[in-house]
Amino acid sequence: MAQGAATDRPVANAAAARRRGSFVERNRGPLLVTPALVTLFVMNIFPLMWSFGLSFYDYRLTRQDLPRFVGLDNYARMLADPSIWESLQTTALIVAGSVGLQMILGFFIAMLFQPIFPGRRILLMLVLAPMMLSYVAVGVFFKLFYNPNFGLISKLIEVFQGTPPNILGDPVGAVLGIIFADAWMWSPFVMLLVLAGLVSVPKYLYEASQIDRATPWRRFWTITFPYVRSLLLLALLFRTIETFKLFDTVYIITEGGPGTATKVIVQYLYRVSFQDFRTGESSAIAYVILFIVIVLTNLYLFMVKRREQEQ
Amino acid sequence: MAQRRAIGHAGWGRTIAAAIVAAIYFLPVLIIIMYAFQGRNDILSISARSLGDYLESIFSFTPTLSNFENVFFRANIIQAGEGAAQATETDFPLYFLNSVGIAGISVILALVIGTLAAYGFARFPLRGNDTYMFIILTTRMLPPIVVTIPIFIMFQVTGLAGEYPGIIALYTAFNLAFTVWMMKSFFEELSPDVEDAARMDGSSETRVFFKICLPQVKAGMAATAVFGLILTWNELFFALLLTSNETRTIPPAMVRTLGGEVGADYGLLAAIVTLFLVPVLVVTFVLQNQLLRGVTFGTIKK
Fold it and tell me: Cβ separation of B146 and A61 shorter than 8 Å?
């Protein structure tokens, strides 16, 4: 009987089929995602759990001593260390400066590229090129560009002030140098996102506003801006997360110097982990960073969802 | 002017303005490409001149392919650093092959595992689907150093440090996070109606996946592979800590040549950057529609 019904209507009801099917048919979802989750667990989640454990131990990678349980000592020592606050401040400064500059530049370049004009596609590609370089390439060559003897940017500044500046030798100059290189590299990213918003504005709205003789200023705030608002916010969050973990360019251009002027939080953690080898303490710091990134990523995904619902 | 210009179209005036901006943005890249074709003496002889002379010297030189030859054929050419103590032996032909192999294998592995997972997440949602997706994204958003400490210990203990399987497994995991998000966004754009129709006609789930879904996301898979390749090829941090002389990839090798200002062979470094950048720019041009998705790890589609 049951067999007869099944041949009549092969797989009419997928859910019913899944209930009666083999193990594979019943567990298709879990089976598909398991290899990926296992890989991620072994390579990311497990190490994270391990370092959470380590953060409660006094442990040095370079010594044979067994880890000694110290409770919250590592966290206490971290909070008491003024240099971590200093590097958090440096990070905040560089994130604010670089992301701010990226947003402004990205926004105006996107406005420039909104309409169709001859050569738009090829010029757009040229503007996007910096983003396609690696951090290493940007680091290596900006270090050269900042070189007082044969650097392009030093030469450029020399035109205005007469003497070639030693950009990376000066604390303020080094911070500005990092901000400038990062903003140059990533403002095309912001541009790309804003441009996606600008392109999505329906043309009839502009036509209607032209009939109404709305001023360009009003046209921008009432028509254009609402379409780019959510993407601007997403660009801001995404770039904040990415700039927060800035390491490669700092490591290559200044190595945190001069002094501690550009010692961003990841550079600081690198020092504690792999130069001082204070493994337990570095795990505690890593967890603070993890917490910050989780909060920001949550906020980011919340905004992604909200934007999808708006559309 | 009989009619006002149609909205959304601008003329040559806009082209000129955009060209100026594009020139400023592209100039450093262009200089890097120029360096790639210059002999060592051309690059270092440009000191102590005015800006005009300087720019002129960057763009007027006798082009040479020696830098590219060095990348592919010559080992042990750089003595970085001032003292003999800092002298570094380098073998860029090997590093180049390492980069190609490690990036290639980990991208392919991630693409296979990740596409299956993305299909699962998109079509057979689990309880807590969003939580899984969030955790996956978080692993990508984290600064690599956060997981490096235990991974470093793990690799020391298991003997994977400095070996190919170790770094490949690690990169596979990192590409996986990106691949799952990106491929899920492609699968979600497909209409489930077509798949359901095939199921009605008696197609097995395997057939639905391979014959109906995969062909529709082929372009998406290509885009995912390309962006994964860019991310992996450029990865410095893990490579710095977890590769040895034999398994070293390009980024840490480039950093190591920077020992001293004068010692670094910028022509060679520029040649390496150019070799990778030119294909990437061409691909970017072709994949312009997928670019947004690629650079936001698949979180933003349009």
Answer: no
